[in-house]
Amino acid sequence: MTIESPNTAGSPVSPDSGPDYDLARLAVDRLGEPSGRFHFVWGHGWGQNRDAMKGLAQSLFALGTHDFLDFPGFGASPRPEATWTTADYADLVHRWLADNTTGAPVVWVGHSFGGRVGIQLAARHPDAVSHVALIAAAGLPRQRSAIEQARLKGRVWTYKALKRLAPLAGISEDDLRRKFGSADYQSAGALRDIFLEVIREDLTDQARRITCPVQLIYGGADTETPPEIGRRLEGLIPTARLTVLDGLDHYSVLGDGRHQVAKRLKTWLEETAV
Q1: CA atoms of 3 and 6, how far apart (whole Å)
Q2: Residue 108 forms part of a structural domain
Q3: How far is it, in rounded angstroms, from Cα 209 to Cα 194?
Q4: pLDDT tens digits, residue range 151-161?
């Protein structure tokens, strides 16, 4: 079964619409202070689970309730039957929020893949979130130097040439994928179809439609989602603010840099909360 993702570039989507998924099977941990000012929802990166962002969130527990989700196909949440896009994941989150909000303003905090979902959520369901924080967020095509482009083209050409010769040389396509595929592609396993859909997405139009306050945080040493993506998102999202933290990479923003990130999020919320 393939789900047609509704309304990828139009008006807000109804909370009753969206992908077919049993919300009771969605793994969620709720922590923090129930009577706090905000309701934080944390979206992890590709290949991770709901534990990935708890270290960062600890410094913010006093500000409110914190929900940590395992996206379908990750952690303890079963994968969807269909090949989902980030729009499907965002619609699922919207459905879940309809029955699980605390009444406080919802702050979405997404890392990498969770940032993609956050962009879709804010664009498709603007009434669902009051703030969106995107940490090392993906969602825009990489801008590569001429040398990087040449290397990539050469790698693709080599892969295609070897793929044609593989039957004659006794080489399997799986062997070629292991040699030439990215680490995320190789580890995607049963989610490989979804991974391929996700990395093809360009969320430029969705970013332009976001109206709530947005905080962008990138590590200055991040080579997976480099700061140039954050700078372009800042230009696309009228309400966005960008912070680049020197010396941090794609994952250390959640580790060694978590206190810097938490401090920036606190300041941003104080400055933008109504």
Answers
A1: 9
A2: yes
A3: 24
A4: 545 554 554 55
- Say what the pLDDT of residue 142 is: 80
179 with 159, same domain?
yes
pLDDT at 126: 97
List, for the chain, all residue ranges whose pLDDT scores fall below the cut of 70: 1-18, 143-188, 274
Say what the alpha-carbon torsion angle 90, 87, 13, 122 is, to the nearest 10 degrees: 60
Give this prediction's pTM: 0.82
Residue environment code for 216-231, b if the CB has 16+ CB neighbours within 10 A, otherwise e: bbbbebbebbbbebbb
Residues 107 and 218 in one domain: yes
Residue 4 belongs to a domain:
no
Cα atoms found within 13 Å of the Cα of residue 265, Cβ hemisphere only: 28
Total residue count of the chain as it appears in this document: 274
For 33-69, how does the pLDDT look when each residue is reduced to its tens digit (9 = 90+)? Answer: 888 899 999 999 999 999 999 999 999 999 999 999 9
Give, as one character, the DSSP assignment of residue 211: -
Do 256 and 126 share a structural domain?
Answer: yes
Asked if 85 and 221 sit in the same domain, the reply is yes
Domain of residue 58, residue span: 23-141+202-272
Using DSSP's 3-state secondary structure scheme, residue 162 falls into: helix
| Helices vs. strands in the chain: H and E counts, helices first | 10, 7
pLDDT computed for residue 190 by the predictor: 87
Please tell me whether residues 151 and 253 are part of one structural domain.
no
83 and 37 housed in the same domain: yes
H-type helices in 125-218, by residue range?
146-169, 173-180, 183-187, 192-200, 204-208
